[in-house]
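[Meeting: bench + compute handoff]

Bench side (C.D.) handed over the final construct sequence. Compute side (W.E.) agreed to return the predicted structure before the next meeting so the bench team could plan truncations. Sequence as handed over:
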Amino acid sequence: MTFAQVQGNPEVKRALTGMVDAGRVPHAILFHEDDGGGAFPLAIAFLQYLFCQHRSGSDSCGQCPSCGKISKLIHPDVHLIFPTAASALSEQFLEPLRRLYAAQPCFREADLLEALGLEGKIPMIAVAESRRLLEKLSLSALEGGYRAVVIYLPERLNAEAANRLLKMIEEPPARTQFLLITHQPERVLTTISSRCQRIRVQPAGAVAEPEFADAQLLDELMAALLDRDLPGALEVSERIASLPSRENAKAFCIFASERLRQMFLCQQGVDLGGDIPPQVRQWAAKCRKTFPRQALEALDRAQTLIGRNVNLKILFADMTDRLFILI
């Protein structure tokens, strides 16, 4: 993956190539993207440029052995870490990841879980992953150059795994590069994120809302709330809780949160033109001005609890009750 093959984010590309050209690459970079926003291919393009044997001033050659291996995610000195089931290691799931990346470079978190066969489970990065990585980094680079670690969703590191990695991220061995890709930087261990250069990756274009984030569910929930119809709102909450997996339920929360942010901007008189759907404008006109901000807190709470294996029916009923009071 060359920079030319990555859509959008020209300023980020220039910053990344400038770091390499000036010999001032931060040892750890935290890419913050929206789910499916393209940070993964951007990170791979950066590593390809860093490792390239014949790079130009703006891109990797795409032809040398290093470029070929990195583009296929098979370079022996590039270690890929991502959430898996229980104490399984990422290296056990590399083939499904490679197939997914080849077919869909800007994959979403739900796409990865489906590719790994982990739908309906709570993925995590366990301490065994940290131990394995530390073993690998204690050895010399197999090809004698840089080594790199790409951690997809560091917010899924459990506490022990994160703490074990902290010292390595603070003081990595020479010519070792850490790249972290997060959707929720506020949930990344503060002592880790504070030691990273943070880069915001903007979506190259409008990212399609996933099918399970069906606008109809949110439309029906908001209609019931605005009509002061609590039984109707609770009926919708049961359907949200019955979505196929916890990832689907979390995606609904993300979808609804974005609509609430649009409501807030609409109430504040910020003109986003056609970017705000008509029904969002109607909700903004009918609900309290305090509702979007307070409802966002309720949705953030629900999203956090989804990952803690709580009963979804109870969780969404409680969230709906909170929204009913707030609206």
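W.E. noted at the follow-up: The chain has 14 helices and five strands. C.D. will use this when planning the next construct.
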